[in-house]
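Weekly structure sync, notes
Attendees: PL (lead), two postdocs, one rotation student
Agenda item 3: pending single-chain targets
PL asked that the sequence for the first pending target be pasted directly into the notes so everyone works from the same version. It is reproduced below exactly as submitted, 115 residues in total.
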Amino acid sequence: MADDPTLGEVARRLEAIHADLKEDLREYGARLDKKVSVERYELERRNADDVHRQLIERVAAIETERMQEIRDDELARRRIEDQRRADRRLILTGLIVPVLVVLLQVYLSTRGAGA
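Predicted structure, written out during the meeting:
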């Protein structure tokens, strides 16, 4: 019986266990207060997914618009180049044909005068 604890010692141990349990329960309560409900988590996740989807759609629209602008710029550049080529042909034709006609007339007049 010498190893048996006294009633006072048992009471102190029970009070210590009781205090530890109270502290543990407060800690669990604080941790539970920090937790988010499943419904709120789902709402926030769906909202984040919607924002992400909208961002992806916006980036895709910007890229599509950018590619269209590049195509339009390339088409405009080709039209300008085609117009320049046509202008050069017209100028060349407008200058060379009269010179050739004059040379032909000179040739024919010198040939007719020499005969």
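Discussion points:
- Residues 2 and 54 are 77 Å apart (CA to CA).
- The helical segments are 7-34, 38-114.
Action: rotation student to compare against the earlier draft before next sync.
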